[in-house]
Design goal:
This protein is of the alpha+beta class and 203 residues long. It has a single domain, classed as 2-Layer Sandwich (Alpha-Beta Plaits). The protein has 5 helices and 8 strands, in the order βαααββββαβββα. Helix 1 packs across helix 4. The longest helix is centred in the first third of the chain and has 19 residues.
Length: 203
């Protein structure tokens, strides 16, 4: 069974997708070779996987094994790609890249850490900017319930990237923006389809 899921990521605050690089700026964001900003599909996938685990843990409608089967085994990219591939997200509107300054505080003492000053590069879109996302999955017909797990995880989406405690990375995926195709055919009444799994119905 081939599943194609399209969704829209609504940006609510500046984003910091770290590159792991530093220099004049301690925390630099991930950019393409031409300087453009793209949210890697792997970053979105990791976050969606987290929400899928939380949904499974709280509702008991899905098992941890269901999550592994839907997303592929963690750490095995070849297997991940075969099961569930997330496309990179970008926008025709280019963000601006301001640098924010901060101070590191010791949680134990509540005082400033030595050499505590740092700066963080962020990507700023207009409030409410929309980025189009796509997911391509392949699994057996009897695993149709994984569609419901993926959509549930998308609906729980609230943050992406680092520095969440400073208000960065807020984003949502509204239910009305999620479209699902199964073997090339759109699921017309998506909510009705989802409820039979979210309410613990058909396996």
């Amino acid at each position: 069974m081939i599943v194609n899921i399209q969704y829209k990521l609504k940006i609510g605050s500046p984003l910091h997708i770290g590159s792991g690089l530093g220099g004049g700026i301690k925390k630099m964001i991930l950019k393409q070779s031409d300087g453009s900003f793209v949210i890697p599909g792997s970053t979105v996938k990791g976050r969606v996987r987290y929400y899928a685990r939380e949904f499974a843990r709280i509702t008991k409608l899905f098992s941890e094994n269901d999550v592994d089967q839907a997303f592929g085994q963690a750490g095995n990219e070849d297997k991940n790609a075969r099961f569930c591939a997330f496309c990179d997200l970008s926008s025709p509107k280019k963000p601006v890249f301001p640098v924010r300054n901060g101070i590191q505080i010791c949680r134990r003492t509540g005082t400033t850490k030595p050499h505590a000053l740092f700066n963080t590069e962020v990507a700023c879109y207009e409030q409410g900017e929309i980025l189009q996302g796509k997911i391509f999955c392949s699994f057996s017909e009897e695993k149709e319930k994984y569609i419901a797990l993926l959509v549930a995880a998308l609906r729980l989406f609230s943050h992406l990237g680092g520095s969440k405690t400073t208000g960065m990375g807020k984003c949502t995926i509204p239910m009305e923006t999620i479209c699902v195709q199964k073997n090339g055919n759109a699921i017309k009444d998506l909510e009705e389809f989802l409820l039979k799994y979210w309410e613990g119905g058909k396996e």
